[in-house]
Structure prediction request, 162 residues.
Amino acid sequence: MTDRAFAGMSYDAVLQKYADTVAGVCVMRLQNWADAEDCFQNTFIKLFQKSPEFRSEAHLKAWLIRVAINECRNYISKNRRFLPLDGLEQGAVSFHEDERDISWALMRLEPKYREALYLYHCEEYKVNEIAQILGKNPNTVKSLLKRGREKLKLIYGGEKDG
Prediction:
């Protein structure tokens, strides 16, 4: 696409490597695939247009997640329509109810818990990193994770660790 480098990677390489991460953040936040696609595109457009300097791939990934979250928040505030997961066409997003995949259970949580748990368990960020990405205090993130896990256990049923 161009000679630009993002943490030593081409734009296409960044898109290929982080597409699932950005898509996951957008779908978890918006619970609607079509809206998530818009925010996904906007995130990568901003990367291309702004061409920020990154210290590392971890910095690049965190930047993409932060921009995706902001894009989703902006989208929600502009459109004021937040469709529940039950309203999606069957098969539009595939989240399977099994023990290996907690996505379906995460989608049933409030966004504040869903974001923290997704970043911690799916993207494997540490509490301090999540706090920085979400713009929250680390103790707040710990509380969100604790309460979110409790709610996840109720959704999952039983004593499974979320």
